[in-house]
Amino acid sequence: MAGSEAAWQAAHMGIKVVIHEMRPKVETFAHQTGNLGEMVCSNSFRSDDDEQNAVGLLHWEMRAANGLIMAAAEQHRLPAGGALAVDREPFAETVTARLKAHPNLRVSYEEITELPDDGHWIFATGPLTSAALGEAIQRETGAERLAFFDAIAPIIYADSIDMSKAWMQSRYDKGETEEERTAYLNCPMDKDQYEAFIDALLAADKTEFHEGETAGYFDGCLPIEVMAERGRETLRHGPMKPVGLTNPHQPDIKAHAVVQLRRDNALGTLFNIVGFQTKMKYGAQTDVFRMIPGLENASFARLGGIHRNTFLNSPTLLDSEMRLRSKPNIRFAGQVTGVEGYVESAAMGLLAGRLAAAEILGQALPPVPQDSAMGALIHHITGGAEAKTFQPMNVNFGLFRPVDGLKAGRRGRKDRYKAYTDRAKDAWQSWLGNFS
Ligand SMILES: Cc1cc2nc3c(=O)[nH]c(=O)nc-3n(C[C@H](O)[C@H](O)[C@H](O)COP(=O)(O)OP(=O)(O)OC[C@H]3O[C@@H](n4cnc5c(N)ncnc54)[C@H](O)[C@@H]3O)c2cc1C
Protein backbone atom coordinates (compact mmCIF):
# COMPACT_ATOMS: atom_id res chain seq x y z
CA MET A 1 0.00 0.00 0.00
CA ALA A 2 2.49 2.62 1.14
CA GLY A 3 5.21 1.72 -1.37
CA SER A 4 2.77 1.78 -4.29
CA GLU A 5 1.38 5.17 -3.33
CA ALA A 6 4.83 6.63 -2.60
CA ALA A 7 6.17 5.49 -5.97
CA TRP A 8 3.11 6.85 -7.80
CA GLN A 9 3.38 10.27 -6.18
CA ALA A 10 7.10 10.65 -6.78
CA ALA A 11 6.80 9.44 -10.38
CA HIS A 12 4.08 12.03 -11.00
CA MET A 13 6.44 14.71 -9.78
CA GLY A 14 8.88 13.65 -12.50
CA ILE A 15 11.19 11.42 -10.45
CA LYS A 16 12.46 8.11 -11.88
CA VAL A 17 11.41 5.43 -9.39
CA VAL A 18 12.30 1.77 -8.94
CA ILE A 19 9.93 -0.31 -6.81
CA HIS A 20 11.77 -3.23 -5.18
CA GLU A 21 9.28 -5.95 -4.24
CA MET A 22 10.45 -9.25 -2.75
CA ARG A 23 7.25 -11.16 -3.59
CA PRO A 24 6.63 -13.58 -5.20
CA LYS A 25 10.27 -14.74 -4.82
CA VAL A 26 10.23 -14.26 -1.04
CA GLU A 27 6.81 -14.81 0.49
CA THR A 28 5.12 -13.64 3.69
CA PHE A 29 2.64 -15.68 5.69
CA ALA A 30 -0.20 -13.28 4.82
CA HIS A 31 0.25 -12.29 1.17
CA GLN A 32 -1.12 -14.65 -1.47
CA THR A 33 0.08 -13.10 -4.75
CA GLY A 34 2.96 -11.16 -6.26
CA ASN A 35 0.74 -8.12 -6.88
CA LEU A 36 1.50 -4.67 -5.58
CA GLY A 37 -1.24 -3.21 -3.36
CA GLU A 38 -2.38 -6.59 -2.09
CA MET A 39 -4.88 -6.41 0.77
CA VAL A 40 -3.78 -9.07 3.25
CA CYS A 41 -6.98 -9.52 5.19
CA SER A 42 -10.23 -7.54 5.08
CA ASN A 43 -11.25 -5.88 1.82
CA SER A 44 -12.35 -2.63 3.47
CA PHE A 45 -10.86 0.83 3.55
CA ARG A 46 -13.36 1.57 6.33
CA SER A 47 -15.62 4.63 6.48
CA ASP A 48 -15.87 6.87 3.45
CA ASP A 49 -17.56 9.68 5.40
CA ASP A 50 -15.27 12.69 4.99
CA GLU A 51 -17.30 14.94 7.32
CA GLN A 52 -17.73 12.82 10.43
CA ASN A 53 -14.96 10.24 10.27
CA ALA A 54 -11.19 10.63 10.39
CA VAL A 55 -10.53 7.70 8.01
CA GLY A 56 -13.06 9.11 5.55
CA LEU A 57 -11.21 12.40 5.81
CA LEU A 58 -7.93 10.65 4.90
CA HIS A 59 -9.72 9.21 1.84
CA TRP A 60 -10.71 12.75 0.88
CA GLU A 61 -7.19 14.08 1.34
CA MET A 62 -5.68 11.26 -0.72
CA ARG A 63 -8.20 11.79 -3.51
CA ALA A 64 -7.37 15.51 -3.52
CA ALA A 65 -3.72 14.53 -3.97
CA ASN A 66 -4.30 12.27 -6.99
CA GLY A 67 -3.88 9.13 -4.86
CA LEU A 68 -3.50 5.89 -6.77
CA ILE A 69 -4.85 3.67 -3.99
CA MET A 70 -8.05 5.71 -3.70
CA ALA A 71 -8.54 5.85 -7.48
CA ALA A 72 -8.13 2.08 -7.83
CA ALA A 73 -10.44 1.52 -4.84
CA GLU A 74 -13.10 3.70 -6.44
CA GLN A 75 -12.79 1.74 -9.68
CA HIS A 76 -13.39 -1.57 -7.87
CA ARG A 77 -15.79 -0.40 -5.21
CA LEU A 78 -18.30 -2.90 -3.80
CA PRO A 79 -21.60 -1.98 -2.14
CA ALA A 80 -20.88 -1.64 1.61
CA GLY A 81 -23.10 1.10 3.05
CA GLY A 82 -20.95 3.99 4.21
CA ALA A 83 -17.73 1.98 3.97
CA LEU A 84 -15.32 1.80 1.06
CA ALA A 85 -15.02 -1.93 0.35
CA VAL A 86 -13.26 -3.16 -2.77
CA ASP A 87 -12.97 -6.20 -4.96
CA ARG A 88 -9.45 -7.06 -3.80
CA GLU A 89 -7.98 -8.95 -6.78
CA PRO A 90 -8.90 -6.52 -9.56
CA PHE A 91 -7.97 -3.70 -7.17
CA ALA A 92 -4.40 -5.01 -6.74
CA GLU A 93 -4.16 -5.83 -10.45
CA THR A 94 -5.13 -2.26 -11.31
CA VAL A 95 -2.60 -0.81 -8.85
CA THR A 96 0.12 -3.04 -10.33
CA ALA A 97 -0.82 -2.31 -13.94
CA ARG A 98 -1.00 1.45 -13.48
CA LEU A 99 2.37 1.54 -11.74
CA LYS A 100 4.00 -0.62 -14.41
CA ALA A 101 2.53 1.52 -17.18
CA HIS A 102 3.95 4.75 -15.77
CA PRO A 103 6.93 5.93 -17.84
CA ASN A 104 8.90 6.96 -14.72
CA LEU A 105 8.43 3.65 -12.91
CA ARG A 106 10.07 0.27 -12.99
CA VAL A 107 9.48 -2.77 -10.76
CA SER A 108 12.41 -4.92 -9.70
CA TYR A 109 11.44 -8.19 -8.00
CA GLU A 110 14.07 -8.68 -5.30
CA GLU A 111 14.50 -8.59 -1.55
CA ILE A 112 16.41 -5.64 -0.12
CA THR A 113 18.50 -6.74 2.85
CA GLU A 114 20.54 -3.63 3.74
CA LEU A 115 19.96 0.05 4.38
CA PRO A 116 21.89 1.71 1.52
CA ASP A 117 24.33 4.55 2.22
CA ASP A 118 23.48 6.59 -0.85
CA GLY A 119 20.59 7.31 -3.18
CA HIS A 120 17.09 8.30 -2.05
CA TRP A 121 15.13 5.42 -0.56
CA ILE A 122 11.69 4.88 0.94
CA PHE A 123 11.35 1.71 3.00
CA ALA A 124 7.70 0.72 3.05
CA THR A 125 8.17 -2.92 3.90
CA GLY A 126 5.17 -3.22 6.17
CA PRO A 127 4.27 -5.32 9.19
CA LEU A 128 5.92 -8.38 7.64
CA THR A 129 9.25 -6.79 6.74
CA SER A 130 11.63 -9.61 5.80
CA ALA A 131 13.86 -11.04 8.50
CA ALA A 132 17.13 -10.00 6.84
CA LEU A 133 16.02 -6.41 6.46
CA GLY A 134 14.67 -6.40 10.02
CA GLU A 135 18.15 -7.36 11.22
CA ALA A 136 19.75 -4.60 9.14
CA ILE A 137 17.33 -2.06 10.60
CA GLN A 138 18.10 -3.25 14.12
CA ARG A 139 21.83 -2.91 13.48
CA GLU A 140 21.21 0.72 12.52
CA THR A 141 18.64 1.68 15.15
CA GLY A 142 19.44 -0.58 18.08
CA ALA A 143 17.46 -3.77 18.69
CA GLU A 144 15.03 -2.21 21.15
CA ARG A 145 13.80 0.36 18.63
CA LEU A 146 12.31 -2.13 16.18
CA ALA A 147 9.41 -4.22 17.47
CA PHE A 148 8.18 -7.44 15.86
CA PHE A 149 4.82 -7.55 17.61
CA ASP A 150 2.44 -4.84 18.63
CA ALA A 151 0.71 -5.17 21.96
CA ILE A 152 -1.96 -2.58 21.85
CA ALA A 153 -3.99 -1.62 24.86
CA PRO A 154 -7.30 0.09 24.08
CA ILE A 155 -7.14 3.84 23.63
CA ILE A 156 -9.99 6.02 24.86
CA TYR A 157 -11.02 9.61 24.16
CA ALA A 158 -10.35 11.63 27.31
CA ASP A 159 -13.63 13.51 27.05
CA SER A 160 -15.66 10.29 27.24
CA ILE A 161 -14.30 9.35 30.71
CA ASP A 162 -16.54 10.01 33.72
CA MET A 163 -14.36 12.08 36.04
CA SER A 164 -16.99 11.97 38.81
CA LYS A 165 -15.75 8.38 39.32
CA ALA A 166 -12.14 8.53 38.05
CA TRP A 167 -9.29 10.69 39.33
CA MET A 168 -5.76 11.70 38.36
CA GLN A 169 -2.91 10.40 40.55
CA SER A 170 0.38 8.56 40.11
CA ARG A 171 0.97 5.61 42.42
CA TYR A 172 2.43 6.86 45.75
CA ASP A 173 2.24 10.37 44.25
CA LYS A 174 5.59 9.70 42.60
CA GLY A 175 7.15 12.43 40.49
CA GLU A 176 9.06 15.69 40.68
CA THR A 177 6.34 17.88 39.20
CA GLU A 178 2.59 18.18 39.71
CA GLU A 179 2.15 16.88 36.18
CA GLU A 180 4.11 13.72 36.99
CA ARG A 181 2.32 13.24 40.33
CA THR A 182 -1.01 13.28 38.46
CA ALA A 183 0.11 11.43 35.35
CA TYR A 184 -2.37 8.53 35.62
CA LEU A 185 -6.10 8.41 35.47
CA ASN A 186 -7.53 5.88 37.93
CA CYS A 187 -10.80 3.94 37.84
CA PRO A 188 -11.65 2.13 41.10
CA MET A 189 -13.47 -1.19 41.48
CA ASP A 190 -15.07 -2.77 44.54
CA LYS A 191 -14.93 -6.54 45.08
CA ASP A 192 -18.20 -7.30 43.29
CA GLN A 193 -17.25 -5.17 40.31
CA TYR A 194 -13.85 -6.86 40.12
CA GLU A 195 -15.31 -10.38 40.28
CA ALA A 196 -17.88 -9.54 37.58
CA PHE A 197 -15.10 -8.08 35.45
CA ILE A 198 -12.99 -11.24 35.76
CA ASP A 199 -16.02 -13.39 34.84
CA ALA A 200 -16.61 -11.26 31.75
CA LEU A 201 -12.93 -11.46 30.73
CA LEU A 202 -12.93 -15.24 31.04
CA ALA A 203 -16.16 -15.60 29.07
CA ALA A 204 -15.31 -13.10 26.29
CA ASP A 205 -14.76 -14.16 22.67
CA LYS A 206 -11.05 -14.14 21.79
CA THR A 207 -9.18 -14.17 18.48
CA GLU A 208 -6.43 -16.65 17.77
CA PHE A 209 -3.01 -15.87 16.33
CA HIS A 210 -2.75 -16.30 12.57
CA GLU A 211 -0.82 -19.29 11.32
CA GLY A 212 2.88 -18.43 11.21
CA GLU A 213 2.32 -15.76 13.82
CA THR A 214 2.66 -17.94 16.85
CA ALA A 215 5.75 -16.66 18.56
CA GLY A 216 3.83 -17.10 21.78
CA TYR A 217 3.33 -14.28 24.18
CA PHE A 218 6.37 -12.22 24.83
CA ASP A 219 7.73 -10.87 28.07
CA GLY A 220 5.62 -8.34 29.86
CA CYS A 221 2.89 -8.41 27.25
CA LEU A 222 0.51 -11.12 28.38
CA PRO A 223 -3.04 -10.44 27.27
CA ILE A 224 -5.20 -9.55 30.28
CA GLU A 225 -7.52 -12.47 29.67
CA VAL A 226 -4.53 -14.85 29.81
CA MET A 227 -3.52 -13.26 33.12
CA ALA A 228 -7.07 -13.77 34.37
CA GLU A 229 -6.95 -17.42 33.29
CA ARG A 230 -3.84 -17.89 35.45
CA GLY A 231 -5.79 -16.97 38.56
CA ARG A 232 -8.62 -14.66 39.57
CA GLU A 233 -6.26 -12.54 41.70
CA THR A 234 -3.48 -12.23 39.11
CA LEU A 235 -4.70 -8.92 37.68
CA ARG A 236 -5.11 -7.47 41.18
CA HIS A 237 -1.42 -8.12 41.70
CA GLY A 238 -0.52 -6.87 38.23
CA PRO A 239 -1.95 -4.00 36.18
CA MET A 240 -5.00 -3.62 38.46
CA LYS A 241 -3.22 -3.44 41.81
CA PRO A 242 -4.92 -0.90 44.07
CA VAL A 243 -1.89 0.18 46.12
CA GLY A 244 -0.52 3.71 46.53
CA LEU A 245 -3.74 5.39 45.43
CA THR A 246 -6.48 7.31 47.27
CA ASN A 247 -9.82 7.94 45.65
CA PRO A 248 -10.71 11.60 46.35
CA HIS A 249 -14.40 10.84 45.65
CA GLN A 250 -14.43 8.24 48.47
CA PRO A 251 -11.25 8.79 50.51
CA ASP A 252 -12.30 6.40 53.31
CA ILE A 253 -12.98 3.42 51.07
CA LYS A 254 -10.04 1.37 49.82
CA ALA A 255 -10.58 0.21 46.25
CA HIS A 256 -10.38 -3.56 45.71
CA ALA A 257 -8.71 -3.02 42.30
CA VAL A 258 -7.79 0.00 40.20
CA VAL A 259 -7.57 0.27 36.43
CA GLN A 260 -5.01 2.88 35.40
CA LEU A 261 -4.97 4.89 32.20
CA ARG A 262 -2.03 6.87 30.89
CA ARG A 263 -1.87 9.81 28.51
CA ASP A 264 -1.28 8.59 25.00
CA ASN A 265 -0.50 11.85 23.23
CA ALA A 266 0.94 15.24 24.03
CA LEU A 267 -2.44 16.91 23.47
CA GLY A 268 -3.91 14.89 26.36
CA THR A 269 -6.97 13.95 24.30
CA LEU A 270 -6.24 10.19 24.35
CA PHE A 271 -5.58 7.74 27.18
CA ASN A 272 -4.52 4.09 26.99
CA ILE A 273 -5.44 1.50 29.61
CA VAL A 274 -2.15 0.48 31.15
CA GLY A 275 -1.22 -3.18 30.70
CA PHE A 276 -4.52 -4.04 29.00
CA GLN A 277 -3.25 -5.59 25.76
CA THR A 278 -5.80 -8.16 24.72
CA LYS A 279 -6.82 -10.73 22.15
CA MET A 280 -10.53 -10.29 22.88
CA LYS A 281 -12.69 -9.70 19.82
CA TYR A 282 -13.63 -6.08 19.24
CA GLY A 283 -17.31 -6.42 20.23
CA ALA A 284 -16.33 -8.18 23.46
CA GLN A 285 -13.74 -5.51 24.27
CA THR A 286 -16.21 -2.64 24.27
CA ASP A 287 -18.66 -4.62 26.44
CA VAL A 288 -16.00 -5.69 28.94
CA PHE A 289 -14.14 -2.37 29.19
CA ARG A 290 -17.35 -0.40 29.67
CA MET A 291 -17.84 -2.40 32.90
CA ILE A 292 -14.96 -0.37 34.38
CA PRO A 293 -16.32 2.40 36.64
CA GLY A 294 -15.75 5.71 34.86
CA LEU A 295 -15.61 4.07 31.43
CA GLU A 296 -19.33 3.21 31.12
CA ASN A 297 -19.66 5.64 28.20
CA ALA A 298 -16.11 5.35 26.89
CA SER A 299 -15.50 6.11 23.22
CA PHE A 300 -12.62 4.08 21.87
CA ALA A 301 -10.09 5.69 19.52
CA ARG A 302 -8.77 2.20 18.94
CA LEU A 303 -9.31 -1.20 20.47
CA GLY A 304 -6.62 -3.50 21.79
CA GLY A 305 -4.80 -6.27 20.00
CA ILE A 306 -1.63 -8.30 19.69
CA HIS A 307 -0.33 -8.96 16.19
CA ARG A 308 2.76 -9.81 14.26
CA ASN A 309 3.88 -6.34 13.28
CA THR A 310 7.30 -4.93 12.53
CA PHE A 311 7.47 -1.26 13.43
CA LEU A 312 9.97 1.38 14.38
CA ASN A 313 10.01 3.60 17.40
CA SER A 314 9.32 6.45 15.02
CA PRO A 315 9.09 9.28 17.57
CA THR A 316 12.78 8.77 18.36
CA LEU A 317 14.08 7.53 15.00
CA LEU A 318 12.36 9.63 12.32
CA ASP A 319 12.41 13.36 11.69
CA SER A 320 9.27 15.31 10.81
CA GLU A 321 9.71 14.35 7.13
CA MET A 322 9.96 10.62 7.92
CA ARG A 323 13.73 10.50 7.31
CA LEU A 324 15.81 8.21 9.46
CA ARG A 325 17.73 10.67 11.61
CA SER A 326 20.92 8.60 11.46
CA LYS A 327 20.72 8.07 7.67
CA PRO A 328 18.65 10.86 6.13
CA ASN A 329 18.87 9.42 2.61
CA ILE A 330 16.36 6.85 3.87
CA ARG A 331 12.71 7.48 4.59
CA PHE A 332 10.26 5.01 6.10
CA ALA A 333 6.58 4.90 5.23
CA GLY A 334 3.50 2.83 5.92
CA GLN A 335 2.80 0.43 8.72
CA VAL A 336 6.49 0.06 9.61
CA THR A 337 6.40 3.68 10.85
CA GLY A 338 3.77 2.79 13.46
CA VAL A 339 0.57 3.68 11.71
CA GLU A 340 -2.01 0.95 11.46
CA GLY A 341 -4.25 -0.01 8.55
CA TYR A 342 -4.36 0.06 4.76
CA VAL A 343 -5.56 3.67 4.58
CA GLU A 344 -3.12 5.12 7.09
CA SER A 345 -0.26 3.19 5.46
CA ALA A 346 -1.14 4.42 1.97
CA ALA A 347 -1.49 7.94 3.36
CA MET A 348 2.00 7.90 4.86
CA GLY A 349 3.28 6.50 1.54
CA LEU A 350 1.68 9.42 -0.25
CA LEU A 351 3.45 11.88 2.02
CA ALA A 352 6.79 10.10 1.84
CA GLY A 353 6.65 10.02 -1.96
CA ARG A 354 5.91 13.72 -2.21
CA LEU A 355 8.43 14.74 0.44
CA ALA A 356 11.20 12.66 -1.14
CA ALA A 357 10.44 14.00 -4.61
CA ALA A 358 10.39 17.60 -3.37
CA GLU A 359 13.75 17.06 -1.69
CA ILE A 360 15.28 15.61 -4.87
CA LEU A 361 13.87 18.50 -6.90
CA GLY A 362 15.20 21.04 -4.39
CA GLN A 363 11.70 22.34 -3.59
CA ALA A 364 11.34 23.76 -0.09
CA LEU A 365 8.02 22.82 1.47
CA PRO A 366 6.27 24.15 4.57
CA PRO A 367 5.58 21.45 7.18
CA VAL A 368 2.63 19.14 6.54
CA PRO A 369 -0.23 21.02 8.27
CA GLN A 370 -1.03 19.46 11.62
CA ASP A 371 -4.72 20.28 11.19
CA SER A 372 -5.04 17.94 8.20
CA ALA A 373 -5.57 14.21 8.80
CA MET A 374 -2.24 13.54 7.07
CA GLY A 375 -0.54 16.09 9.31
CA ALA A 376 -2.20 14.83 12.49
CA LEU A 377 -0.95 11.33 11.75
CA ILE A 378 2.61 12.20 10.71
CA HIS A 379 2.90 14.55 13.66
CA HIS A 380 1.76 11.78 16.02
CA ILE A 381 4.26 9.19 14.81
CA THR A 382 7.22 11.52 14.45
CA GLY A 383 6.81 13.46 17.67
CA GLY A 384 3.36 13.75 19.26
CA ALA A 385 3.21 10.18 20.60
CA GLU A 386 4.86 9.06 23.82
CA ALA A 387 8.08 7.40 22.61
CA LYS A 388 8.41 5.10 25.64
CA THR A 389 5.06 3.42 25.11
CA PHE A 390 4.78 3.91 21.35
CA GLN A 391 2.38 1.47 19.69
CA PRO A 392 0.81 1.60 16.22
CA MET A 393 -2.00 4.07 15.73
CA ASN A 394 -5.08 4.47 13.54
CA VAL A 395 -6.10 7.93 12.42
CA ASN A 396 -8.75 9.35 14.78
CA PHE A 397 -10.00 12.75 15.89
CA GLY A 398 -8.14 12.43 19.18
CA LEU A 399 -4.98 13.25 17.20
CA PHE A 400 -6.39 16.62 16.14
CA ARG A 401 -5.86 19.89 17.92
CA PRO A 402 -9.11 21.03 19.53
CA VAL A 403 -11.12 23.66 17.64
CA ASP A 404 -11.65 26.65 19.93
CA GLY A 405 -15.14 27.44 21.14
CA LEU A 406 -16.72 24.05 20.50
CA LYS A 407 -18.45 21.96 23.14
CA ALA A 408 -16.55 18.95 24.52
CA GLY A 409 -18.32 15.64 25.21
CA ARG A 410 -20.71 13.50 23.25
CA ARG A 411 -23.35 16.12 22.57
CA GLY A 412 -21.09 18.42 20.63
CA ARG A 413 -19.45 15.60 18.71
CA LYS A 414 -21.18 16.09 15.35
CA ASP A 415 -20.34 19.81 15.22
CA ARG A 416 -16.82 19.15 16.44
CA TYR A 417 -16.07 16.52 13.81
CA LYS A 418 -17.49 18.73 11.07
CA ALA A 419 -15.27 21.57 12.28
CA TYR A 420 -12.20 19.27 12.30
CA THR A 421 -12.89 18.02 8.80
CA ASP A 422 -13.63 21.49 7.36
CA ARG A 423 -10.44 22.84 8.90
CA ALA A 424 -8.45 19.82 7.70
CA LYS A 425 -9.65 20.13 4.11
CA ASP A 426 -8.68 23.81 3.95
CA ALA A 427 -5.27 23.12 5.46
CA TRP A 428 -4.58 20.18 3.15
CA GLN A 429 -5.71 21.99 -0.02
CA SER A 430 -3.53 24.90 0.83
CA TRP A 431 -0.49 22.63 1.43
CA LEU A 432 -1.12 20.85 -1.89
CA GLY A 433 -0.98 24.31 -3.50
CA ASN A 434 2.81 24.18 -2.96
CA PHE A 435 3.08 21.52 -5.67
CA SER A 436 1.24 23.21 -8.51
C1 LIG B 1 -2.13 -10.82 9.04
C2 LIG B 1 -2.41 -9.37 8.86
C3 LIG B 1 -3.73 -8.95 8.67
C4 LIG B 1 -4.02 -7.59 8.48
N1 LIG B 1 -5.31 -7.20 8.28
C5 LIG B 1 -5.60 -5.90 8.02
C6 LIG B 1 -6.92 -5.49 7.72
O1 LIG B 1 -7.83 -6.30 7.68
N2 LIG B 1 -7.16 -4.17 7.48
C7 LIG B 1 -6.18 -3.26 7.51
O2 LIG B 1 -6.45 -2.07 7.25
N3 LIG B 1 -4.91 -3.62 7.79
C8 LIG B 1 -4.59 -4.91 8.05
N4 LIG B 1 -3.32 -5.30 8.34
C9 LIG B 1 -2.31 -4.30 8.42
C10 LIG B 1 -1.81 -4.21 6.97
O3 LIG B 1 -0.69 -5.00 6.80
C11 LIG B 1 -1.56 -2.82 6.61
O4 LIG B 1 -2.73 -2.10 6.79
C12 LIG B 1 -1.03 -2.58 5.20
O5 LIG B 1 -0.91 -3.69 4.38
C13 LIG B 1 0.29 -1.99 5.43
O6 LIG B 1 0.71 -1.42 4.27
P1 LIG B 1 2.26 -1.29 4.02
O7 LIG B 1 2.40 -0.72 2.67
O8 LIG B 1 2.90 -0.60 5.13
O9 LIG B 1 2.77 -2.82 4.03
P2 LIG B 1 2.42 -3.98 2.99
O10 LIG B 1 1.15 -3.73 2.30
O11 LIG B 1 2.60 -5.26 3.73
O12 LIG B 1 3.59 -3.83 1.93
C14 LIG B 1 4.92 -4.09 2.26
C15 LIG B 1 5.58 -4.73 1.05
O13 LIG B 1 6.97 -4.81 1.26
C16 LIG B 1 7.42 -6.07 0.80
N5 LIG B 1 8.67 -6.37 1.51
C17 LIG B 1 8.85 -6.65 2.82
N6 LIG B 1 10.17 -6.79 3.09
C18 LIG B 1 10.83 -6.56 1.94
C19 LIG B 1 12.21 -6.53 1.58
N7 LIG B 1 13.16 -6.76 2.48
N8 LIG B 1 12.54 -6.28 0.30
C20 LIG B 1 11.58 -6.05 -0.65
N9 LIG B 1 10.26 -6.07 -0.36
C21 LIG B 1 9.90 -6.30 0.93
C22 LIG B 1 6.26 -7.00 1.11
O14 LIG B 1 6.31 -8.15 0.28
C23 LIG B 1 5.06 -6.13 0.80
O15 LIG B 1 4.66 -6.21 -0.54
C24 LIG B 1 -2.99 -6.64 8.53
C25 LIG B 1 -1.66 -7.07 8.71
C26 LIG B 1 -1.38 -8.41 8.89
C27 LIG B 1 0.03 -8.84 9.09
Automatic annotation (TrEMBL):
Q: Where is the MnmG N-terminal domain?
A: 2-363
Q: Name one Pfam family in it.
A: GIDA
Question: Keyword Ribosomal protein: yes or no?
Answer: no
* Compartmental location: Cytoplasm
What keywords are assigned to this protein? Cytoplasm, FAD, Flavoprotein, Methyltransferase, NAD, NADP, Transferase, tRNA processing
Query: Please, which domain of life does this record's source organism belong to?
Result: Bacteria
Q: Which cofactor does it need?
A: FAD
GO molecular-function annotation terms?
flavin adenine dinucleotide binding; tRNA (uracil(54)-C5)-methyltransferase activity, 5,10-methylenetetrahydrofolate-dependent
Q: Provide GO CC annotations from the record.
A: cytosol
Q: Which InterPro entries match?
A: FAD/NAD-bd_sf, MnmG-rel, MnmG_N, TrmFO
Biological processes annotated in GO: tRNA methylation; tRNA wobble uridine modification
The EC number(s) attached to this protein equal: 2.1.1.74
- Signal peptide positions are none
- Function as written in the Swiss-Prot or TrEMBL entry: Catalyzes the folate-dependent formation of 5-methyl-uridine at position 54 (M-5-U54) in all tRNAs.
**What family name appears in the similarity comment?**
Belongs to the MnmG family. TrmFO subfamily.
What NCBIfam families does the entry give?
Answer: gid_trmFO (TIGR00137), PRK05335.1 (NF003739)
User: By its UniProt entry, which HAMAP family does this protein fall under?
Assistant: TrmFO
Q: What is this protein called?
A: Methylenetetrahydrofolate--tRNA-(uracil-5-)-methyltransferase TrmFO
Give the organism, scientific name. Answer: Tritonibacter horizontis
Q: Which gene encodes it?
A: trmFO
